[in-house]
Structure formats: structure tokens, C-alpha cells
Amino acid sequence: MSNKNRPTGAAEDSRKGTSSTSRRAFLGGGLFVGALVFLGGFSWFQRKPEDIVISAIRRNLPEQSLPERDLQDFATNFAAKNKQMRKNEMAVNGLRTIGPIVFSETFQSLLPTHRAQLLAKFEREIVTSFLFSTDFFQQGAQGWENVSYVGYYDPYEHPCGNPLAEFSRPA
Amino acid sequence: MTPVEHADGSYDVIVVGSSFSATFFLHRYLERNPGRQRILVLEKGPFRDSGWQIEHQRPADHPAHVYYEKAGAHSFNWVFSVGFGGGSNCWVGNTPRFTPNDMRLKSLYGVGRDWPISYEEIEPYFTQTEAIMEISGPSRPYWPQSKPYPLPAHKVSDADRLMMQASPEFHMEAPTARASRDTATRPACCANGVCSICPIGAKFTVLNSMMAPYEDPRVSVMVNAEVHSIDMAGGQARGVTFLHNGREKRVQGDLVVLAANSIFNPVIMMRSGLESPALGRYLHCQLAFTAEILLDGVDHFNGSSLLGCHNFSQYDGAFRSERGSMVIETHNMGRLRVEEGRWRQVMPVFMKVEEIPQLENRVVLPEESGGKPIAEFSGFTPYARKTYDMAHDLLAQAFAPLPVEGIEVAPILGSSTHVHGTTVMGDDPTDSVLDRDLIDHRVRNLVVLGAGAFPNGAQVNPTLMLSSLALRTADRLSASQV
Question: Tens of pLDDT along B158-197?
Fold first, then answer.
């Protein structure tokens, strides 16, 4: 029914009612969205570098099935060593706020090429370090069925553990 | 070696610094002068043994940038290590030779300048340095070589092996001071990939392989001793003034050998009132950058050391009259690919491009007394940049024998970790500081060692050359050929 055929009073009431509801809904919705944004932002700020490391592993190595405690151990070590060793280019601290989205292809496609490459390389660095921290390559690099976590790969604590190095020359 | 706390009186030789140049000079000088000698070594930094370095995962107490200020249009990091053993504590261990043509750049290509000595004159010293460092190297190197390398080359990766088969004249195992098998002083490298401080001591350093000169009873070593200036009288060096634990001291010497580095050496000379149109000038380094060669179906990374091969396909030719030569290193440590099953189908490469030294790039004294040296650098010239701009195509040419599916070239690095120039050697005193024997043109009992003497910014690592020059200078002095 069009407003034209309504009784005047009803139409005015109706208009008043609609306006009032919209305002309340708008305010309520705005508050709700604002709270979500705040909580989301807060949670991003609270997100640990370790979570970002783990998310990079899960995204790139979906088949891996190592226990959560192993992932956590690796992530803790990776974050700690990187903070110490690469202060200038340490991405983890910078990623803390926006970590969940920076590794997404959508986000990276919006970045300048060089920045996108840097992020992609950082992600590869995490994966490389993780693979070196398992016996994935010693098991043939064919799957994750018998793969174990052997400890965070740190040549200073456990030298001569490069799983890819070969020392015998072809005849 | 126990550093001394007191130094006084007169010495036959005062050596400033304890890195490669100082050590190789002392090694030969002590050999050639078996009689009584009183030698004092003054090292600006402390003594930090390898245990300290590994524990702290750094070679020295402070990074290099603490010791100088930057100026000029281009912010560039000049990297060195202050402490006993100097750069040997943090070098990566690469020992390519300069080639004969590198030393005749002006004659052959009309750019830069020629070296005042020929390849033939320095070649015997290359072999001696390679013997002392026990270099692992290729059986068929790119340069003329009178003696084979002491140790066999490291095993290379599958991708490098294919390159060597397809391009044997240009692609070969890289010579390195990381042992390919156990030696008397070092274990074989096991490809830890963290070569600035080797976790197992497989790489040659002064500390693990060349302490004999410092343990010689004729030699006294004082650490934390920062030389301020040379004491001059009658056009001769008479000694040095230095700070030790905050106190100013003086010692006398018949021969003064500066072997600090290319930032500190010219500053010490300037503070001493020495003048030369070239002093502090021609500060330079290589233009360095990295890239990744993405491979299709060929694996990499299974070499036995960090550095795999050198590729010299873009090294020499008529193009050097217009743009810089480029050496390519393949590395066995880097980021794997993340595509399932293609983990190892990528080859990290590292490039160094030669630069023509420029007069305006220089080290200058700070205005205030006690201030830090200032390194002024206006940036790389079009000569070096042109090669970088062509990098993608040049790398595609170099790696054409491999199934390459992509090449990703990274931006120019903020340092090549090498510092050249500032005390350039030459035959003309109006355009060089040192003569062909690294002796000051005017002060004939002042020797200045190190890469500061390099007339050209060659694209290869400087350590083999500067160590060999130090041996040669000690020989020439001892034989009274200068």
C-alpha cells in the first residue's frame, strides 16, 4: 500500500515509527560493528608472532600433521631467533597487527611488487626453517606419514644438521 | 697469545691492526727477518675468542656503523669488524682471484685505471696465500694459476653440475677458505650456511689458523689500543700516538705499517698532517644484489658448502668499456619453494658488479677533534647501474643451459661488505697515495696495507688480493727491493 492511500495520521505515525526504528537500528548496528572492529583490532594487536608463524605453516603445508606442541615449539623458537638475529628486517613484529591477512593472496596482490615479494619470501623462510626442523627430507620428501619434528633448526646449537647437504662426489 | 698492557720505548716495526693484511705481512716479515726484532701490534678492538663470538653470534662488540658517520647523497653501509683478527672473524671465506684483465682496465677498455703491478707479479703470492689458507678450489679455474689449490673443491648441487657440464669454461666450483676436508687446524665444512661466524671453525680465520705471528716472542700485541696519528719528523714516521684504555700513549718505531682498514687508515694519515691529492679519495665497493633462478624439474641445494659455483659468463669482454663486469655466485642455502614437491627447484644467486672509483667519494676527518670519520658516498655510477638494469637478461643468458621458468631480481643491497680505495696505489704521486709496494710516495718508512690500495673496484672479493699484496710488500721490504 502506498503512503498516498493511507490515513494521514497513520502515515505520519508510520513515518515516525520507521524513522525512529532506523535510527535505533543504525546506532545499534554501528555500535555492534564498532565493537567488532575494536575487538577484532584488539585481538590482532594481541596476536602473538608465534600464531603468524603457525598460520604460515598451515597454509603452505596443509598435509603436515605434526602435534600442536611441535608447531608451537617451532614457532616460539622462530619468533625468538628472528627477533634477535634480524632486528632490521624482522617482519614478525610488524606483522603482529595484521598477521592474519598479510599472507593472503588478496592482500599481497594489492601490494607493490617488491613488498609482495618480500612477504612471500618471508613466508618461504618460515616454511624452509620448519622443513629443516623436521626429518621431512630424510624421509624422502614424499609425504608426512612418518615425518617427525626433530627440533628447531639452529646451526649454532646443533651444527652439521643441514638435511639437504651432500658430501660425496659423483664418481 | 697474551696481550700486553704496557708498550714503551722503541720498536723496529709498529703494526696497526690485526686482520688479514697485518697478519700476512707479519707472517712473511718474521720469516724474512730471523734476527732480533722488536715488533708491536696495536689493535683498536678487544680480543674475542671464537667461543665468545659463537655465544654472542656476532664477531665483535659493536657493528661497524658505530665507528663512522655517513654523508653524501647515498646512504651506504661500510661493513667491517673491529677486534683482534678483524675481518677474518666475519668474512664469508670466498677467495676468487682477480684476473689479468681486471688489472688492465684502462689499457684494455679505456675506463678506470690500471694497477701498477701485473697479474704475473702478484700470481706467486696468490698461490702462497691459497696455500696458507688451505683453499678448496676447482681443478680448472677461470684464471691462470701456477699451482693447484691445496684442497679439492666442494661438492656442487645437481643444478650446478648441469651448468658445469654445459658451460665448463664459465661455470666452476668456487674457491673458498671453508675446508672441503679436515685439515690440521680446521674440520671440513658441513654446510651450516651461517658462514660469517662458522659454528664449527671450518673457515680460515686468524684465530683458528694463523696465530703464530702473534705468539712469536719478538711480537707484542696490545688490544684496545686505538692509534690516533703517526708521529712525524723530518718527513719520516717516528712512531705513533694511541689511546689505550682512555690514556694517551706514544711509542717510537723505525717502520710504521697501517693495516687498520680503508676507513681508518686514511684518517690516521690525515691526522698526522700527511697530504696527497688522492688521500681518502676513491672510496668504493661493488654493487651487490641477489636473485632467485626458478627451475623447472632440476633440484638444487645439495652441495657441501654454502657457496656452490662461480659463473664468469658475464665477467669479461668489450662491454667493460661501457658497463661493469659481473660475477655470479650460486648459493646452497636459501629459501625453498613452497609448491608441493618442488621444494628444491630454486637457485639463490648473489652478484657483484664492478664499479669505477670516483674522486668525490671519500673519507674525511670530522671537524671536531675526536669525532668519527665521515664516509661520503654519492652512489653508484651509471657504469655499474647499467649492468644491474640488465640483470634479468644477463642472468637468463648465464643460466640458459638450465630449464629456467623465472628469474626474480632483488633490489641493490645497501652494502657489499667490502671497502676499497682511500689510499690508492699507483705510479703517479699526484693521483695515488702509495707506490707499487704499498709504501707512501713521500714517507718512505710508512706502509699502508689493505683494500684501500685497490685502484679499481673489481667485482671479486678482496681478501685474497689484499693478503697477497701484504705478503709481497713484506718480501719487497725484507729484500730491500724498495
Answer: 999 999 999 999 999 999 999 999 999 999 999 999 878 9
Q: Under DSSP, is residue B116 helix (H, G, I), strand (E, B) or coil?
A: coil
Q: Where are the domains of chain B?
A: 10-478
Nearest CA of chain A to the CA of B375: how many Å? 22
Q: Are B189 and B203 in contact (CB under 8 A)?
A: yes
- A70 shares a domain with A37: no
Same domain, A13 and A76: no
Q: How far apart are CA A9 and CA B323, in angstroms?
A: 87
8 Å CB contact between B259 and B438: no
**Is there a single domain that holds both residue A151 and residue A171?**
yes
| Structural contact between residues B25 and B206, judged by C-beta atoms closer than 8 angstroms | no
Domain that holds residue A34: 3-46
Q: Which residues of B touch A156 (CB under 8 A)?
A: 54, 57, 194, 199
Q: Are residues A40 and A68 in the same domain?
A: no
Cβ partners under 8 Å of residue B391, min gap 6? B289, B291, B326, B351, B409
How many CB pairs below 8 Å do chains A and B form together? 68
Residues from chain B contacting residue A124 (CB–CB below 8 Å):
335-338
Please name the fold of domain B10-478. FAD/NAD(P)-binding domain (3.50.50)
| Same domain membership, residue A124 and residue A71 | yes
**CA neighbor of B422 nearest in space, from B380, B465, B384, B375:** B375
Cβ contact, residue pair B337, A124, below 8 Å: yes
Count of domains forming chain A:
2
Q: Are residues A26 and A59 in the same domain?
A: no
DSSP string computed for A35-95:
HHHHHHHHHHHH--HHHHHHHHHHHH-TT----HHHHHHHHHHHHHHHHHH-TTT-HHHHH
Instruction: For residue range B219-278, list pLDDT tens digits in order.
Output: 999 999 999 999 999 999 999 999 998 899 999 999 999 999 999 999 999 999 999 999
| Spatial separation of the C-alpha atoms in residues A40 and B431, rounded to whole Å | 66
ipTM: 0.89
